Amino acid sequence: MILPIVAYGDPVLRKECKAITEDYPNLDALLENMFETMYAAHGIGLAAPQIGVPVRIFIVDATPFEDDEDLSEEEQKFVSTFKKVFINATIIEESGDEWAFNEGCLSIPDVREDVFRQPDIVIEYQDENFKKHTEKFSGIVARIIQHEYDHIEGILFTDKLSPLKKRLIKSKLTNISKGKTNIDYRMRYPKAKKKR
């Protein structure tokens, strides 16, 4: 089922998400809905809070980068099959010289900005069968994981921008939170605060 994606301004996007256990209800359906929702919005990653569920789950599918000419042949081969579920993830190390990459977010449509992140990460997580993994990722895949990981920590990519950049996009963010967007996927906008 394709679910609406939560828009910028909704408090759920600012929550530090809770870990889940193996008895979490309807996990298979949740993951299936997340993939369906992500693909319908042409995304490469989606975190549970983006569909209004504040738990430590995110999904990644880097396959759209397989034809990216900026990637080496080896990287293209790797991303062409990279599709994963991350449950209860913790990034335990980030290393290397920061590099800029133009990021966007399904919860913040029509806003793209260069964000600096370190190129290498080590992450501990459980897969959809709750099998534990500790893996190292680099380059574009690490970048996607870091972006989605931030979501389960209550952080948005716009938080990483300079004060000047934040001021320049402020009106765009306000419009998104008010539902003034022109996108081709379903969104859930924050409810307007009632005047007392």
TrEMBL record:
Fe cation binds at C105, H147, H151. SUPFAM superfamilies: Peptide deformylase (SSF56420). Binds 1 Fe(2+) ion. One of its GO terms (biological process) is translation. It catalyses: N-terminal N-formyl-L-methionyl-[peptide] + H2O = N-terminal L-methionyl-[peptide] + formate. Its cofactor is Fe(2+). GO terms for molecular function: metal ion binding; peptide deformylase activity. InterPro entries: Peptide_deformylase, Peptide_deformylase_sf. Pfam families: Pep_deformylase (PF01327). Belongs to the polypeptide deformylase family. PANTHER family: PEPTIDE DEFORMYLASE. Removes the formyl group from the N-terminal Met of newly synthesized proteins. Requires at least a dipeptide for an efficient rate of reaction. N-terminal L-methionine is a prerequisite for activity but the enzyme has broad specificity at other positions. This is Peptide deformylase. It comes from Cochleicola gelatinilyticus. The lineage of its organism: Bacteria, Pseudomonadati, Bacteroidota, Flavobacteriia, Flavobacteriales.
